[in-house]
Write a structure and sequence with these properties.
single chain, alpha+beta, about 25% strand, globular
């Protein structure tokens, strides 16, 4: 029996574990470190931090793990893949050198420039004074022109500010570089970037360093409130549907962004093995790259993997062994959706600790409930402990059918302080 270790603890990892079980033709034994209460229904939980490389490697070796897959970005950028490979432990994912595409915004933008990948005009600044100098130079437009400020390093979703005016942009520089709202070291340098206009889309792919396989294009909903109001979150819902990326735009994104990225990585000595996430802006001038992530997104993963028909463990194996080109991935037709239920107060200081009622009323043959932040009460009920708590996910022949299943399930469950968006899947405002 194949033994697989998944590193991570959120809704993304629950979806990965579920897909491994759901798509495998043979029994698999799955471990998850550290996991959560929902994941514990499908896998053996291992109480090891995602950042404890030595202990994770020791566990993989002593338990004869056949393959380790890492969900979150922090251990990837810290070099967990390099550490496992050095010890001869089977692992799939980008090396630390490849993970710089997410770990360093400046490295990523410079990489795009070196390889002619369409993206927004930018400058990098290593001090607040230098950042303000760029903002006030007029290079990014007038005082009323929107501009984007990005922390250089990993910032747990708090490092990007889309400022509507120069005053807001200057405040963002102060918040990030002086007040350190995204962390003490995340914004020692910042990227100042032209604000692109258009519709966002997420294009994810599997890569073995040479060949790649695209996943269904997705779109997520970042803001906490309906009609895209309120602060950004880690993601309040996501969809996959043919309308996200039409065939002509997809072909152009592959030709101008996907293939130059993978070729550029090989040319620079860090052939990309793993899951690559491309955040796209679909502008009037064609698709442009906003950012790289070097792992599955969350909650895009939930909406994507619920449509996977091919054995996911074989996909992971082929990425590691360089045989992805020999594998034909299959997906269900139609569309899918994930609607996130969160605790009141999220993405700020949120309430926590209420028991969730009604989960046993949901037909998990039609709607998958992926746990992002739960624990088990002595009563056996799940407790809403995280900011994002659950992701209700379904596939359907149409997007409307998938959404109807998700929202129907949401009406059957509740806890004091539960909040969710009612407009997931609605076309973005122009």
């Amino acid at each position: 029996m194949k033994r697989i270790l998944i590193v991570g603890s959120g809704g993304r990892e629950h979806a990965i574990v579920w897909a491994l079980r759901n798509t495998s033709p043979d029994p698999v034994e799955i471990f998850c470190a550290p996991g959560n209460a929902g994941i514990g229904q499908l896998a053996q939980l291992v109480n090891i931090s995602v950042n404890d490389q030595a202990e994770l490697a020791r566990f993989a070796r002593s338990n004869e793990i056949d393959l380790t897959f890492v969900g979150p970005e922090a251990p990837l950028t810290a070099g967990i893949v390099d550490a496992f490979e050095t010890q001869g432990l089977p692992v799939v994912g980008p090396t630390a050198a490849a993970a710089r595409l997410e770990g360093s915004k400046i490295f990523a933008k410079d990489f795009m420039a070196r390889h002619g990948i369409p993206t927004a005009a930018y400058r990098s600044a290593d001090s607040p004074a230098r950042a303000l100098e760029f903002l006030r130079s007029g290079e990014f437009g007038s005082a009323d022109t929107a501009v984007v400020i990005k922390a250089e390093g990993l910032a747990a979703g708090k490092g990007v500010v889309v400022a509507a005016t120069r005053v807001e942009a200057e405040q963002a520089v102060d918040d990030l570089m002086v007040l350190h709202v995204a962390g003490e070291t995340a914004a020692e340098r910042v990227v100042i970037e032209q604000a692109l206009m258009g519709t966002e889309a997420s294009l994810l792919l599997f890569s073995d360093g040479q060949d790649y396989a695209l996943m269904p294009a997705a779109r997520d909903h970042k803001r906490i409130g309906d009609n895209d109001t309120g602060p950004n979150t880690g993601g309040m819902g996501s969809i996959t549907d043919a309308s996200v990326l039409d065939a002509a735009t997809l072909e152009r994104a592959v030709r101008e962004i996907v293939e130059p990225t993978l070729a550029g990585a090989r040319d620079e000595g860090f052939a990309f093995k793993g899951v690559l996430f491309l955040g796209l802006m679909l502008t009037a001038d064609g698709p442009k790259l906003l950012e790289y992530n070097v792992r599955f997104g969350d909650p895009e993963t939930q909406a994507i993997l619920i449509r996977l028909k091919t054995d996911l463990s074989s996909v992971f194996d082929s990425m590691r062994t360089g045989t992805l080109g020999q594998l034909r991935l299959e997906w269900t037709e139609g569309a899918s959706a994930c609607v996130v239920a969160a605790n009141r107060g999220y993405p700020g200081k949120y309430e926590s600790g209420a028991e969730i009622e009604g989960l046993d009323q949901i037909d998990e043959g039609r709607v998958q409930v992926f746990h992002a932040g739960t624990s088990l009460a002595p009563s056996g009920r799940f407790i809403a402990t995280g900011g994002r708590v659950l992701g209700l996910t379904a596939a359907g022949e149409t997007l409307g059918a998938a959404l109807q299943l998700c929202y129907g399930a949401l009406q059957k469950m509740s806890w004091p302080g539960m909040q969710f968006r009612t407009d997931i899947g609605r076309p973005p405002r122009a």
